[in-house]
Amino acid sequence: MESKRKWAGASALTMTLLLSACGGGGPGSSGGDFTGDKLVLAVLNDQSGVYKDASGPNSVKAVKMAVADFQAKYGDKAVVKNIEVTSTDHQNKPDIANTKASELYERGGADVILDVPTSSAALAVANQAKNHKKLFLDVSAATTALTGAQCNKYTFQWAYNTYLLANATGTTVTRDGGKKWTIIYPDYEFGQNMTKSFTDAITKAGGTVGETIPTPFPNENFATFLTKAGSSNPDVIGTMHAGGDLINLVKQFNESGLKEKGVELAVGLMLINDIHSLGVEQFAGTLFTDPWYWNQDAEARAWADKFMTETGVRPSFEHAGNYSAALQYLEAVQAVGTDDADKVIANLEGKKVNDVFLRNGEIRAADHSVVHDANLARVKKPADVKEPWDYEEIVTKIPASEGFAPAEASGCSMKP
Amino acid sequence: MSAVLQYAVQGLAAGSFYALAALGLAVIFGVLGVVNFAHGAFYMLGAVATAVLLDTLDLTLWWSLLVVPVLMFGFGVVVERLLVQWLLQLDPLYNLLLTFGLTLVLVELVKQRYGVSGLPYQLPGGLQGRLDVAGVVLPRYQLFVLLFSVAVCVLVWLMMTRTRIGMIVRAATEKPELARALGINVGRWVTPVFGFGVALAGLAGVLAAPFRAITADMGNNFAIILFAVVVIGGLGSIVGAVVAGFLVGLVEAFGQAYAPTFAQILIFVLMALVIVVRPAGLFGRQEATT
Questions:
Q1: Are A15-160+296-368 and A163-290+375-401 equal in CATH topology?
Q2: Which chain A residue shows the shortest CA-CA distance from B262?
Q3: By CB neighbour count within 10 A (0-12 exposed, 13-18 middle, 19+ buried), where does B58 fall?
Q4: What CATH architecture applies to the domain A15-160+296-368?
Q5: How far is the C-alpha of B211 from the C-alpha of B252, rounded, in Å?
């Protein structure tokens, strides 16, 4: 009985090997090299909460655009025909993100998880990616821990991090004469980390940070905080707030009279959707880092036009980042002819990439940080806005080498 | 010294806003005995309505100050007739649950319709700029909010204490049996008073539009501060709500200036202290709770 079973197993194995040798895994076929005969891209993000507009459902559409572009490019030559895009809401909660990621990898058949805003949620997903040995391409979370102390072989950070935000905005503003800073920040992890990154960058560029003022989170009334921030006569007030708190602070900054006294406002993290929702008048003149702007050049604009047809809005850098991550993942799969994570990673590592989103991009092998050129932007005056969503003037380009910390400094030791 | 004066002025400006926003909460509790958890959501609706009216009908802030409270009064009447009235004779817990659920529904509806990032709002021209008196700076708009709030608070207080309607309402709620015996139709006053409280919340929302983020969630955190205000002042006491509003504004301003991390906690420390010394709040009447 035992030997019969062995015999059957061996012949089945031979048959499989023979079949695959006869072109089973080649282009045009979706044979045994793809689990379940299909490729599954899962977008895990905030579908209903504060980051819904910045990324959310429209990032799912961006990923679908990448799939469509990939299929149009390769047609019959695509190594896999059946490509599925799924999406799940993590509500910005790390525990939910953790469970959902595990479900997606195990039962959802996900080959890759994309997006995942909120640093704590992203770190939970990175851990699941490591345990399941499947890919995680993070686009919307900013913590440097993803490619630093908590890095792993299966996790890539595609768009930006707090170091980029601090070095682009902090360094450039300081070099341009904004030497004396006061920083107001929400008193939780993101705000504290941003304040540290900014302080380092400002000091390195020859500036000083006079005062750092923590505020409760969330908070509506910033009047006295702003008076306090202005009392030391800084050149620049840096704010590390986001979402509703940022809007409260900007509205009250505009009323405080600090602007007229010549105090500049620099924002740590802002998305084009924030400007769109609050109106360009409120933010006019504000400096901030934008890893990618839809109207930064003709190529970006052409893609933004397509995106607008799909969604009715202009893309944020997170939308474009998701498109790029999905597209480069598909290109890597096409190159290696399988959804095997280790082989896809080997193809991605060290690759130099230029696409709609990544300019002068490099997928660093050492820490899996995807570095690329970024922009320091200033919000236009209402009179200079020529069309809807035309909100940013690019003050300067930040080369990839300046915007991102060198891999040696990341603190990442890659263990599979 | 001028810094202290500056913080005091900012505290009073913020306090007047808290007083006005808490007023409706105090009126509704004082008259109906309903702990209105939806007050933050009504405040949010006022602000959202203001932004939408400006966007769609070009109605400026001045018009919104008139139109939105009227709309919110109507909305309050509908809510009272459809929902609140059925639970009035039950344990107050039921109304607390009802209004809490109502908050969730309203917030979610606004999110569905207007998204999560907030609505834009521009201040009318005349209220921009600042007043600078001897180094103490106050934005014109804040000054406007301060004066407007004080005026409304005084009006409401006069209405409740000096007019016939006010006296009937107070009699009907303090001694309903006696009022009935004197031929006052107590039930008749419940609906308009609830609508009035909702209108006051909406009015605070209108004032908030130019200097606060207009999002579906804007009332959540704010409502918690308002509850602290009415508890400090004494649940249901109009004078208490106003005095406590200013007190909370000042505590917040000086907290922000001298102990930034604890600015919001200080409000609740104040609340705890008041409850320890006077369990019914500064102006609360012990017998009102029986």
A1: yes
A2: A216
A3: exposed
A4: 3-Layer(aba) Sandwich (3.40)
A5: 17
CB of B18 less than 8 A from some CB of A = no
Query: Where does A139-208 have alpha helices with state H?
Result: 162-165, 172-175, 189-204
Q: Which two tokens stand for residue B54?
A: 């400006």
* pTM: predicted TM-score of the whole model, two decimal places: 0.83
Å between A414 CA and nearest CA of chain B: 38
Using the structure block, give the residue that is written with the tokens 């006869």. A22
**CA angle, A316 then A364 then A320, to 5°:** 15
Residue matched to tokens 């986001």: A242
pLDDT tens digits for B25-53? 998 988 888 899 999 999 999 999 999 99
Neighbours of A272 (CB within 10 A): 26
A276: which 2 tokens?
Answer: 């769109």
Strand order in A361-363's β-sheet? A352-353, A361-363, A370-371
- Distances, alpha carbon B188 to alpha carbons B99, B169, B276, in Å: 21, 10, 37
Residues 6+ apart with CB under 8 A from B258: none
Interface probe, candidates B117, B220, B266, chain A, greatest A C-beta count within 10 A: B117
Between the alpha carbon of residue B152 and those of residues A138, A342, B44, B137, the distances in Å are 52, 69, 19, 24
Tokens of A286: 């504000």
Helices B2-32, B164-174: crossing angle, 10 deg rounding = 70
Q: B135: which DSSP letter?
A: T
B116: domain CATH number is: 1.10.3470
Q: Which amino acid is at B7?
A: Y
Q: Return the percentage of chain A with pLDDT > 90, whole number.
A: 70
Residues A295, A269 contacting (CB under 8 angstroms): no
> Is residue A230 a contact partner of residue A263, using CB atoms and an 8 Å limit?
yes
What φ, ψ does residue A238 adopt, rounded to 5°?
-100, 130
| In chain A, domain spans | 15-160+296-368, 163-290+375-401
Check if the beta carbon of residue B76 is closer than 8 Å to that of residue B194: yes
d(CA A244, CA A229): 20
Q: Residues of A near B (CB-CB distance < 8 A)?
A: 48-54, 187, 213-216, 218-221, 223-225, 227-228, 231, 243-245, 247-248, 251-252, 255-257, 273-274, 276-279, 281-282
HSE-up of B237 (CA within 13 Å, CB side)? 24
- Within its chain, how far is the Cα of A56 from the centroid? 12
DSSP state of A31: -
Q: How many angstroms separate the CA atoms of B33 and B54, rounded?
A: 35
H/E segment holding residue B150: helix B140-162
> What are the DSSP E strand ranges found in chain B?
130-133, 136-139
Was domain A163-290+375-401 assigned CATH 1.20.120.430? no
The Cβ of residue A217 has, within 10 Å, a number of other Cβ atoms equal to: 16
Q: In what order do the strands lie in the sheet with A155-157?
A: A83-89, A39-45, A112-115, A135-138, A155-157
Which tens digit of pLDDT belongs to each residue from A90-119? 988 899 999 999 999 999 999 999 999 988
| Cβ atoms of residues A282 and A254 within 8 Å | yes
CA distance A286 to A283: 6
Spatial separation of the C-alpha atoms in residues A224 and A230, rounded to whole Å: 10
CB atoms within 10 A of CB A4: 8
For residue A6, name the pLDDT band (cuts at 50, 70, 90). Answer: low
DSSP character at residue A368: -
Give the per-residue pLDDT at A18. 46
Range(s) of the domain holding residue B188: 1-277
For residue A279, give the nearest of B14, B122, B215 by CB distance. Answer: B122
